Amino acid sequence: MHYQTISVVGLGYIGLPTAAVFASRKKKVIGVDVNQLAVETINRGEIHIVEPDLDKVVQAAVKGGYLRASITPEPADAFLIAVPTPFKGDHEPDLSYIESASKAIAPVLKKGDLVILESTSPVGATEQMAAWLAEARPDLTFPQTYGEASDIRVAHCPERVLPGHVLRELVENDRVIGGMTSKCSDAAVALYKIFVEGDCVITNARTAEMCKLTENSFRDVNIAFANELSIICDKLGINVWELVALANRHPRVNILQPGPGVGGHCIAVDPWFIVNKTPDAAKLIRTARKVNDYKPNWILEKVKLSIDEFLHDNPDKKLNNVVIACFGLTFKANIDDTRESPALAITKKISDFHQGHLIVVEPNIADLPISLSHLVKYKDIEDAVKAADIIVVLVDHQEFKENLKESDLSRKKIIDTRGILENL
Ligand code: SAJ
């Protein structure tokens, strides 16, 4: 199997780095995205997302003539679909982006092509994608009806990279390869071996789908444990950060860190794909989601309480003079991504009820999101601390870890949802 041209459909947090890494191995890569602005940015050799070192890799790939972006799909030997799979309604998976991507590439498919679904998907989505492709191209044969003899190979190979470490993890992580037939798997392994240094482990498409959902549900359940502990410890007057550090000295205990809730487009979403398919069986997974979803509300109650306490301690102050500073909006540290971010949701809710000033410090975002555009964004951490009466640490960005401790925090009410000040 020789792949001359590779097309990556969906140039977001996964698709763009994947396209750039193939291009860095001197493959001709056509990136496809419906976002005209993203396409233009990439074709200038620039990037529209924040991910360490991605700018350099994309710039080199575009300059070297290996990577080009386009709004419309073009013929290629392999297609990787890396589009969003959000949920809709009552946590039902929304496959509409996969459907549109399948229908967009179908006209340019030719005999011998490989189509890989990389998007995190509910069990059965790869078969569904293959059905959409077959419907659009009755002149070609597909694995669901022609097995090993099919014209088109189809596989699910879920991405598993950690935002902030994408370029390293893309290359180093093992890859789960779920072909619809074993020839489909072999074709996918040959493609990933262009850059993957980890093992490419073969299974079927449904197991590969479930494997990705399992990984993220495992993490969600473990974070829920930490979040529940933080609520219990608060009631018992115990410092949860110290407790977790102590318990983790046990050789078989490894508790994760409590936070303001679970954000991002993956861990807060994927477990629902399991719950949606098997609602009666997935009890623990559903409860973990609920525990993590509840955590921002619990933090909001803490903020309200600290406003009352501050007014009690400072009787000369009026409610509309109380200044709250929120540190961080992104869903986790050192990235610019605010999707499903509990920090963003908490800040928005504070801005809805708080009658005084609310200021925001977020070093990784140039402009505040529209829902918060009425707020004042501070660049300087020190200035924000000086201005604030109540400090709410929502993200453990490196800048905050390094600089907040230098500030004069005396006489400030502090809600440190990430425990970065607890460890001073
Ligand atoms: N979080 C905590 N406490 C922790 C760890 C995380 O509160 O101890 C929070 C984070 O602040 C964030 C959320 O959980 O809001 C998710 O962050 P994360 O770093 O756990 O995961 P993601 O969403 O950035 O990436 C995950 C990864 N999955 C696993 O680690 C099992 C990544 O490998 C996947 O590729 C990615 O989801 C994905 O795309 O599915």
Keywords for this entry:
Rossmann fold, 424 residues, eight-stranded mixed β-sheet, binds ligand SAJ, 2 domains, five-stranded parallel β-sheet
What does this structure look like?
Helix content is 42%, strand content 14%. It has 424 residues and is of the alpha/beta class. It folds into two domains: 5-198, NAD(P)-binding Rossmann-like Domain (Rossmann fold), CATH 3.40.50; 218-416, Rossmann fold (3-Layer(aba) Sandwich). A hairpin with a 3-residue loop joins β5 and β6 (92-93). It is elongated, with a radius of gyration of 24 Å. The N and C termini lie far apart (56 Å). 43% of the residues are buried. The mean pLDDT is 96. Ligand SAJ binds at residues 120, 159-163, 215-216, 219, 223, 256-257, 259, 262-264, 266-267, 331-332.
In short:
This protein has 424 residues and is α/β, with parallel strands linked by helices.
CATH class of the largest domain: Alpha Beta
CATH structural architecture of the largest domain: 3-Layer(aba) Sandwich
Radius of gyration: 24 Å
Ends apart, CA distance between termini:
56 Å
Average predicted local confidence, pLDDT: 96
Strand count, sense and closure of the main sheet? 8 strands, mixed
Spell out the CATH superfamily of the largest domain: NAD(P)-binding Rossmann-like Domain
Helix and strand element order: EHEHHEEEEHEHHEHEHEHHHHEHEEHEHE
- List how many beta strands DSSP finds: 15
* CATH fold topology of the largest domain: Rossmann fold
Q: Spans with pLDDT under 50 lasting ≥5 residues? A: none
Number of helices: 15
The residue fraction in helices comes out at 40-55%
